[in-house]
Specification:
Shape: elongated
Radius of gyration: 35 Å
Order of helices and strands: HHEEEHEHEEEEEHHEEHHEHEEHHEHHEE
Helix content: 25-40%
Low-confidence stretches: none
Strand order of the largest sheet: 7-6-5-8-9
Distance between the termini: 91 Å
Mean pLDDT: 85
Number of strands: 17
CATH architecture of the largest domain: 2-Layer Sandwich
Strand content: 25-35%
Number of domains: 4
């Protein structure tokens, strides 16, 4: 070994983003293992590589004893004194191995072991770097796709996999495309670090909103809840403690420029921004937008809400394939039952009367009965749960 070898190790360490000291330590351990396996089995061997000069030493270590029980690791005092006149019992005798005894087999084994160590160190570097960034959104480059539909993206120092369920349906990602991805999970496996990326996660939408809406970034507007069906439609509930700031307007931006920037990154996914309300009834009412609904009965103990809907608003409330009510259920975390009523009434007046009755608490029985009468003959036509399940009744007259 010489100075050129040390310089080569430095270059490898820099190229592979590995500590030079770690690489030298791995080399010493590799040579020690190879020498023990191929030359001096069951011996005590030490390997030292000078990090400056490149001088390599392989040393056989034996304990000086009166009576030898294991000649591989022990030597009697008489033999030891012939080598070192100052040696004593209990001391260790160091014998330097001649370089010619580094057999070709041993050196080949060193090469293989060292390669393995380099790979292990690289894996550890990648794992440690991205484990700390788990839960972040970063920009990556699409590098390839396999026949199972998995997309692989280059993170810079590592590679992440994005399976079909974490992709935006219908989005075509070509090699070389730069995309924003959410680092959903980083774990260590026997084959190295496994990094799971996602473009379908709600956290990606949250990140984009924070990037595009300064009022969200500085805390003026709060993101209270997000329900998303990637590539199709999302609902975002927002709230502002500052009465001078319109949370919905802040998210949409002038002529919709802010929300359009978000949707363009998500493949033109539709994003509905609604007003969050501490009152569960009003929050559910807002979440079913653009449909206008009537009476809402909330059962807090079971997180159920029974919502009465006029016939002309029913299809809007349910949405295409049940999407609107499904997202509303996810957003509010309530099981929502939509009930159709055939009654024709002044809906706004009915809601106003109910609110007044609830606030005053007077004539509760008669006021409630009158309000119920406005929505007679209601029938359940759709039920949505927070888990995303939707059941639609059949044969509704």
């Amino acid at each position: 070994m010489n100075k050129d070898f040390i310089d080569a190790l430095k270059d490898v360490a820099q190229e592979r983003n590995i500590s030079k000291d770690q690489l030298i330590e791995s080399f010493e351990q590799s040579l020690q293992n190879a020498y023990l396996k191929n030359v001096a089995q069951d011996h005590r061997v030490e390997v030292n590589l000078d990090p400056e000069s490149g001088e390599l030493e392989v040393i056989i270590v034996k304990e000086v004893v009166e009576k030898v029980e294991n000649s591989n690791v022990q030597i009697n005092l008489a033999d030891a004194l012939e080598i070192d006149p100052d040696i004593e019992v209990g001391m260790e005798l160091l014998t330097y191995v001649e370089k010619e005894k580094f057999t070709r087999i041993a050196l080949q084994a060193v090469k293989q072991t060292l390669t393995q160590k380099i790979r292990e160190n690289e894996r550890n570097v990648v794992f440690n770097e991205y484990k700390d960034r788990e839960g972040e959104v970063i920009t990556a480059v699409v590098v390839r796709m396999d026949n199972k539909g998995n997309v692989f993206v280059d993170l810079g120092h590592g590679e992440a996999i994005m399976p079909p369920k974490e992709q935006i349906p219908g989005e075509r990602l070509m090699n070389g495309t730069r995309v924003k991805i959410f680092l959903k999970e980083v774990r260590q496996t026997a084959r190295g670090p496994s990094i799971l990326a996602s473009r379908a996660d709600e956290k990606l939408l949250e990140y984009l909103l924070r990037q595009e809406v300064p009022e969200i970034a500085d805390g003026t507007v709060e993101l209270k809840a997000i329900a998303r069906e990637a590539g199709q439609r999302s609902k975002v509930a927002v709230y502002s403690r500052n009465s001078n700031v319109d949370p919905i307007g802040a998210c949409i931006g002038h002529r919709g420029n802010r929300i359009q920037a978000v949707t363009s990154e998500l493949g033109r996914e539709r994003v509905d921004v609604i007003l969050w309300d501490s009152n569960a009834r009003e929050f559910i009412r807002n979440s079913l937008s653009p449909a206008k609904v009537g009476l809402i009965e909330v059962v807090p103990d079971t997180n159920e809400a029974h919502v009465t809907v006029m016939p002309d608003q029913l299809s809007l409330a349910i949405g295409k394939g049940g999407q609107n009510v499904r997202l509303a259920a996810k957003l509010t975390e309530y099981r929502i039952d939509l009930k159709e009523t055939k009654a024709i009434s002044d809906l706004d007046l009915a809601i106003q009367q109910a609110a007044l009755e609830e606030a005053s608490g007077s004539n509760k029985g008669s006021a409630h009965a009158a309000f119920e009468a406005l929505f007679k003959d209601a029938r359940t036509v759709a039920t949505a749960t927070p888990s995303g399940e939707v059941e639609v009744s059949e044969n509704i007259e």
